[in-house]
Amino acid sequence: MSDASNDIRQAQTNLFLRLETFELQLSALYKQYAVLFPDIHDLWHEMAEEEEEHAKWVHIMIGLLEDGHHFYNLDVIKVDMLAKKIGLIEEKRVEAQQGHVTQKDAILTALSLEASVIESEVYQNIKSDAPTLPYITEKLVRETRKHNDQINQALRHLKQK
Ligand SMILES: [Fe+2]
After folding, report:
1. 142 CA distance to ligand 1 middle (Å)
2. Which domain holds residue 147?
3. Number of domain units in the chain
4. Per residue in 93-152, pLDDT tens?
5. Which residues pair with 71 in a beta bridge?
6. Ligand 1 mean position to 81 CA, how many Å?
7. How, if at all, do strands 71-72 and 127-128 pair?
8. Ligand 1: distance of its center to the CA of 58 in Å?
């Protein structure tokens, strides 16, 4: 393998590792929200588990890269933006740990994070020669949209109270 293609592979691996961190951090945030807001504990808990699954799927993509599959279009994932989001999630998690968050704040934070994944179309844009990739990315897209809907529903419910 040429040095150039090794560099590309390394950069792509780093990108996926960051995406994996993003999903794991999101899971940790939702777990914290589950503790803080027992009346919608199950929603936060279920979403936390699914985010953990998302991290596993991203990790599988790293495995596909290692197996020699090629990935395209990864420049749609903005590394700086991802790093910023990861930092933001960490801040929000610390705030939640200290109990300085209302349920509405938590819902709005989650909504904006899920919406940012949908709007940036990260998972829609990742392409590969690996035959299993569409299954993975479709699942990630579907569940991110589902989270968005579920959180929106929780927000509507909160407003009706
Ligand atoms: Fe996710």
Report:
1. 10
2. 3-160
3. 1
4. 999 999 989 999 999 999 999 998 888 888 999 999 999 999 999 999 999 999 999 999
5. 128
6. 16
7. antiparallel
8. 10
